[in-house]
Amino acid sequence: MLMESRAYTCIVRCERLLHTDAIWNDLLSWFRLPASCPCDHRPLVHGRVKGLRDLNINAMRARQSRPSVARVYSYVLGGRDNYGVDKDVGDFFMGDLPGSEMLAITNRQAILRAARDMASDGIRQVIDMGCGLPTDENVHDVLRRKVPDARVVYVDNDPFVVAHGRALLAIDENIAVVEADVGDPAAIREHPDVQRLIDFDEPVGIIFGVVLSFLDDEADPAAVVRDWSQRLAPESRVYISHFRTGRTREAVATERKIRDAFGVGTWRDEEKIKSFFGDLELLEPGMAPCARWRPEPPAPGTDPVQKDLSIWEDLIVAGMARKR
Ligand SMILES: C[S@@+](CC[C@H](N)C(=O)[O-])C[C@H]1O[C@@H](n2cnc3c(N)ncnc32)[C@H](O)[C@@H]1O
């Protein structure tokens, strides 16, 4: 979403600052701040401005001209918060590789089912790694249907995601959005919001929604998962979804386009992905294409129909494991 640049005087830290660039205007819109400066310091505005304070606005500016994984993924899912550079990549997938959006769609649906099952299994606190931009339904929405006071920390290394998340996801004190690299578990654990919200003596749910696909082998995703697993209490859950290597022409083209567009993106075979769980107990149905991972039961009175997977649905798999 690119809005027209306009002058705006704002009260961040009660200073009067003049912001005229597109990023700032986007932020005002995401945080639903009024178009003209309300210098009467109304509490509502102050509450929202608080969320703006620590944003990495310079990093956002620097990333505006390059496609971002989060924004392209959101665009493919039907989101509106993106720039021309993101649309170009998203349109390539949907135009040149029709059907490839099912990679994103089935991945997102499976994550929400994972959150549903974590809540059913008694998990009351979740860290969502590489959470992405907010969608119509988010991990905390699903968890809170069963656990109204569920605590959630969303983690992402993209400052746009953090800005959006603070505006739209962090709706109360039990939800935080942290800017951090998934490849650095210690930094995440030491973050004040993680220390405040996550009790590692109790079961925790950790969601790695396709984010490990964006860690190269040198970043050692297996070690990242192991690091977390070692610190989790019994009955914790770890969910991973990941791009699976395919041999079709379409699979090769998708893999190449993701690498070219973002400079990262590693596709792995199922055995490799499974090995990330290490000593954790992989729960039923094991690793499966996201589209087949614990699907919603058929509507009452209808027969379960197992339709064939498309080539795209076959390229993303998921699994959930339990700490014994
Ligand atoms: C394809 S999106 C997936 C979003 C969400 N997890 C889902 O599956 O619906 C991948 C997300 O991972 C984030 N990401 C990629 N590499 C990361 C890293 N090293 N640390 C933290 N976040 C990362 C991206 O910014 C993006 O928001």
TrEMBL record:
Query: Per its record, how is this protein called by name?
Result: S-adenosyl methyltransferase
Instruction: Give GO terms: molecular function aspect only.
Output: methyltransferase activity
The record's InterPro entries line, in alphabetical order, gives: SAM-dependent_MTases_sf, SAM_dep_MeTrfase_SAV2177_type
Keyword check for 4Fe-4S, yes or no: no
Q: Does the entry feature the keyword Ligase, yes or no?
A: no
Highest taxon above the source species:
Bacteria
GO biological process terms held by the UniProt record: methylation
Tell me which UniProt keywords the record has, alphabetically.
Methyltransferase, Transferase
